[in-house]
Amino acid sequence: MAVYVVGHKSPDTDSVCAAIALADLKSKLGLECIPVAQGELNNESKFVLEKFGVKAPEIMTDGTGKQVILVDHSDISQSLDNLDKAEILGIVDHHKVGDVTTPNPVEVWTWPVGCTCTVLKNMYDFFGVEIPKDIAGIMACAILSDTVIFKSATCTDKDKEAAEALAKIAGIDDLQALGLEMFKVKSAVEGTPIRDLVKRDYKDFDMSGNKVGIGQLEVVDLSILDPVKEQLAEDIKKLKQEGGYHSVFLLLTDIMKEGSLMLIASDDPSIVEKAFGKAPEGDRIWLDGVMSRKKQVVPNFEKAFAS
Ligand code: MG
Ligand code: MG
Ligand code: MG
Q1: What domain range includes position 81?
Q2: What is the pLDDT of residues 154-200, one digit of tens each?
């Protein structure tokens, strides 16, 4: 029986490319693995796979009776449905350790770096397995995506080293240019339903017993979102109602100005001031220098909810 390698819900480029790369590595090490994604790929991921001629993974959303390896997450809320009925064989990640537990010992590789594919590049090296050219290309793109072209607070020297080494293997001569090309694809909002924009890169969290959703849209210029900003603000209020959330936040991240406008729908908006030391203006707040949900937003809210 094959083992499935799966990234988080609302798949992003890292969770897709990490699943593909780890399935390749594990299969070459003798464990037959199939990469899967928990939903339709976003435009950026489609662009990246097409660019390097890599087949998109199948979609799988239920873990019942499956053997799985998790990449780019270890939170139950972000994982397969019925994960408790699956057998987890491993985790490769770069987030805080989540709430997944296992009855058996597992192989866990988590590093505090900017991207799962950075960990994977080092795993290939550790096991002495050559990285195929096409997979090196998509791994480099995942690093560009997760580190926002090396600008994010999560980016480390290991990410830059890995991306440069992968670029060499893949024959990419300008990582910056490739990064900008990707983010232009990612920035496109035209013709996309509002709820799809809210959910494009969206994660659920349990914060001290409160259900919290945090989405993020990364664009090359915030003005791209001007035509839809008010609708987005309205839609997260609706989503909060429908999903029984304490709070839903949507980060509109300007990767050139290096900051985020956060839209707020919350039972207790004062949680925002508690988290960031600054009062919101109505249902939004500009957070200068904040680009990383994982490093600059989630920990602040977790502390604020816990206090
Ligand atoms: Mg991810
Ligand atoms: Mg990631
Ligand atoms: Mg991301």
Answers
A1: 3-184
A2: 999 999 999 999 999 999 999 999 999 999 898 888 888 999 999 98
One-letter amino acid for residue 307 of the chain:
S
How far is ligand 1, taken at its centre, from the CA of residue 72, in Å?
5
The ligand with the least distance to the CA atom of 11 is: 1
- C-alpha 260/C-alpha 251 separation (Å) is 6
How far apart are alpha carbons 12 and 17 in whole angstroms?
A: 9
Ligand lying closest to the C-alpha of residue 95: 2
* Length of the chain, in residues: 307
Which two three-digit tokens encode residue 262? 């956060």
Per the CB < 8 A criterion, the answer to whether 255 and 219 are in contact is: yes
Q: Which helix (H) or strand (E) holds 145?
A: helix 133-146
- Relative to the alpha carbon of 12, which ligand is closest? 1
pLDDT (mean) for 41-68: 97
Output the pLDDT for position 53: 98
Q: For 70-96, what is each residue's pLDDT tens digit?
A: 999 999 999 999 999 999 999 999 999
What's 291's domain CATH number? Answer: 3.10.310.20
Instruction: Report the chain's mean pLDDT, rounded to a whole number.
Output: 96
Q: How far is the CA of 239 from the centre of ligand 3 (A)?
A: 21
pLDDT, tens digit, 9 for 90 and up, residues 236-277: 999 999 999 999 999 999 998 999 999 999 999 999 999 999
Distance 73 CA to ligand 1 centre (A): 7
Ligand 1 centroid distance, CA of 180 (Å): 19
Same domain for 170 and 199, yes or no, is no
Q: Give the distance (Å) from ligand 3 centre to CA of residue 14.
A: 8
Whole-model pTM: value is 0.85
Q: What is the domain count for the chain?
A: 2
CA of 48 to the centre of ligand 1 (A): 15
Ligand 3 center from residue 145 Cα (angstroms): 7
Contacts of 56 (CB under 8 A, 6+ apart): 16, 37, 41, 45, 46, 49
Centre of ligand 3 from the C-alpha of residue 297, in Å: 12
